[in-house]
Amino acid sequence: MKNSQTTFAIEVEDMTVAYREKPVLWDVDLLVPGGILQAIIGPNGAGKTTMIKAILGLVKPSAGRVLIYGKPYSQQRQLVAYVPQRGSVDWDFPTNVLDVVMMGRYGTLGWFRRPGKEDHQRAEEALAKVGMADFLKRQISQLSGGQQQRVFLARALVQDAMVYFMDEPFQGVDATTEKAIVSLLKELRAAGKTVLVVHHDLQTVTEYFDWVLLLNVRRIASGPVSEVFTEKNLRLAYGGKVAFLTHHTHQNAGAPTNV
User: Fold this and answer.
1) How far is CA 200 from the centre of its chain?
2) Is the pTM of this model over 0.70?
3) I need a surface site. Which of 17, 35, 82, 150 has the fewest CB within 10 A?
């Protein structure tokens, strides 16, 4: 039972999502405290992306409710930022880097107020933070995959949210970009932000994250990495298809290979 005095950054209760009567998520509960980095891991088809989209109202659940800092998401949208999968975006859309980042300010501005000097300054600062300050006027279609991902992160940063949802931010990026993203995630955590990340590389879970949710349609386990990232839970999530290497920092878990 949760402590009635505790307000969690994210509360998901009895979340069920079905496509054509087939459950993609089934009766999932999740409590995420504020100020942590939490990974969502599980096999393909486990419902990881659907989980984020259902929390954000982009997918309609069959059942369940979501609270962000104790209130329905519809009342807390301004506290939330979302970085979707890069592959889900039309990168041929004719717009430049600065315009994409400025889109992150519209939640604050509204659609009819023009961005001012402060908005432009915030956008430029966010691009500098992700190493893209020299690409302000570059068309997004001309960027590499890693550069596109950095632009999306900058767009999320200018929202100045309290809760960040990121769907596979490391997918298809180079090692330099991956390091930059990890550094940014840890900076957000240090500022008291909460970050929920769909992640696929099991070998980096213990290095990058504080908490982890193991998901396979149902919730297998959720909590601090040191407690729930165990061989037993991973085998429950992945159906026994996980090979392990020795890991020296956690007694309970091996460092599993990718699956």
Assistant:
1) 12
2) yes
3) 35
pLDDT of 3 strictly over 50: no
Separation of CA 211 from chain center? 13
Q: What is the pLDDT of residues 201-224, one digit of tens each?
A: 999 999 999 999 999 999 999 999
Extract the tokens encoding 200: 């696929």
Residue written as token pair 């307000």: 7
List the one residue out of 246, 250, 245 whose CA is nearest residue 206: 250
Q: What is the pLDDT of residue 257?
A: 44
Nearest to 28 by CA among 20, 40, 19, 43: 40
Length of the chain: 259
Q: Which two tokens stand for residue 120?
A: 């432009």
Cβ–Cβ < 8 Å for 229, 250: yes
Residue whose pair of structure tokens reads 């932000």 in the numeric block: 193
For residue 27, give every residue at least 6 positions away whose Cβ sits within 8 Å of its Cβ, in sequence order, or none: 14, 15, 16, 63, 218
Query: What beta strand segments (E) does 69-217 contain?
Result: 71-72, 80-83, 163-167, 194-198, 211-216
